Amino acid sequence: MSENDPSDNRLNPLRRAIDNIDSQIVSLLSNRQKQVNRIVAVKKEYNLPVYHPAREEDLISARRQQAADAELDPDFVEEIYRIIMRRSRIEQTGKMADASVRPGATVLIVGGRGEMGRYFASRFSDAGYIVRILDRDDWDRADALCEGIDLAVISVPIDVTVRTIEDIGPLLPKDAVLTDITSIKKTPAEAMKRAHEGPALGLHPLFGPTTSSLDKQIIVSTPVRDEAACRWVTEQLSAWGSIIVPSTPEEHDEIMAIVQSLRHFATFAIGRFMEQKKVPIKRTLAFSSPIYRLEMGMVGRLFAQDPALYAEIIFASDSRRKLLKDYIESLGQTMDMVENGDREAFVAEFRRISAWFGPFGEQAIRESSFLIDKLIERF
User: Fold this and answer.
1) Closest C-alpha among 220, 162, 221, 154 to residue 193
2) If DSSP codes are grouped into helix, strand and coil, which group holds residue 223?
3) Which of 48, 67, 209, 261 is in Cβ range 3.0-4.6 Å of 77 for a Cys bridge?
4) Digit-coded pLDDT (tens) for 262-308
5) Within the chain, which residues score under 50 in pLDDT?
6) What is the pLDDT of residues 156-212, one digit of tens each?
7) Residue 98 confidence (pLDDT)
8) Beta strand 151-154 with 130-134: parallel, antiparallel or unpaired?
9) Which distant-in-sequence residues (6+ apart) come within 8 Å of 157 by Cβ?
10) Angle at alpha carbon of residue 181, lines to 178 and 185, rounded to 5°
């Protein structure tokens, strides 16, 4: 276009108007953050959780209606506000890191030099708790380390959790809370009942030590003894932004066998098969749909992590191993339709399973479509 292009005379004022609006949006976001900071001060004073799901959903519903009234796409406005609210929660979580539910309390992290042990040691320390570490080389000082503590967190591998609980339990003050953070709960709960006569609580953080924020991170809580005396521990985790999901040890182990053991094993099996077939991963991605890339991302993610950790999770108990054998048997039951190329049997089985999933199928389409759209934006 030439320097005197008439379109510039019309576009430039409009562009300046947009720039002015954008500047106002940033200023409004800044003002909004100042109000968030005031809210943080109140939440810290009263030890209130960062995440308030009912408040957030009410806000989203109101903004969607406002968007529709303004002839804007409600999905577009919702997406913007989901980003704003997540940023707000992360800011709150960061500022709440030093919010202590039990000021001056002493926390002992057993296994505190492991990755998850260091993670929680840092969290409690940042919140002003007195943190002590007991690791493999510290057992000669265990009596002194346990003296006067308010909370003992067992953060050791699954295969030594029960033994560690049995060793530490008799050393604890009677009113100290004993908890573990392993991914099975029934066996550790039974061990805690035997080893410690005081309050006890099972916890399972469903995240890893690389998590930068506890915003909406799920922690399963399973009561063992004296739930009221343990409440300050879950309140502390909530104050840091976590979502506490209550459960019994039995329900936890049953569900986690599916959520963790079966899912990880199935992912391992896919990756193993691809390695055996020497599938050219990069070339398949060139031909891939976004959903394939997403699925391959989950497979690759598994094999980029610690194999010992996943072996521990997958083979954690006899019941988990039995579930995996049932899964393999179920795969074998489909061989007839594969060998015979029986499309009709496949369609019939597909429809039967689809009916069992019910309304979740539509929910799954919505959620996976959102992830796919995000992946398209990224790649």
Assistant:
1) 162
2) strand
3) 67
4) 999 999 999 999 999 999 999 999 998 888 888 999 999 999 998 99
5) 1
6) 999 999 999 999 999 999 999 999 999 999 999 999 999 999 999 999 999 988 888
7) 65
8) unpaired
9) 312
10) 85
Pairing of strands 218-225, 200-205: antiparallel
As a whole number of angstroms, the distance between CA 332 and CA 36 comes to 55
pLDDT recorded at residue 237: 93
Report whether 104 contacts 130 (CB < 8 A).
Answer: yes
Q: What are phi and psi of 49, to 5 degrees?
A: -70, 155
Burial class (CB in 10 A: 0-12, 13-18, 19+), 312: middle
Distances (CA, A) of 147 to 137, 164, 225: 18, 17, 21
Q: At what angle do helices 290-303 and 360-378 cross, to 10 degrees?
A: 80
First-to-last alpha carbon distance for the chain, in angstroms, is 32
Q: Which two tokens stand for residue 18?
A: 């947009």
- The pLDDT of residue 130 is 97
d(CA 11, CA 13): 6
Locus of tokens 């999770």: 313
What are all long-range contacts of 125-131, with beta carbons under 8 Å and residues at least 24 apart? 126/97, 126/98, 127/97, 127/98, 127/99, 127/100, 127/236, 127/240, 128/98, 128/100, 128/103, 128/104, 129/100, 129/102, 129/104, 129/105, 130/104, 130/105, 130/106, 131/106, 131/107
List the structure tokens of 253: 């182990």
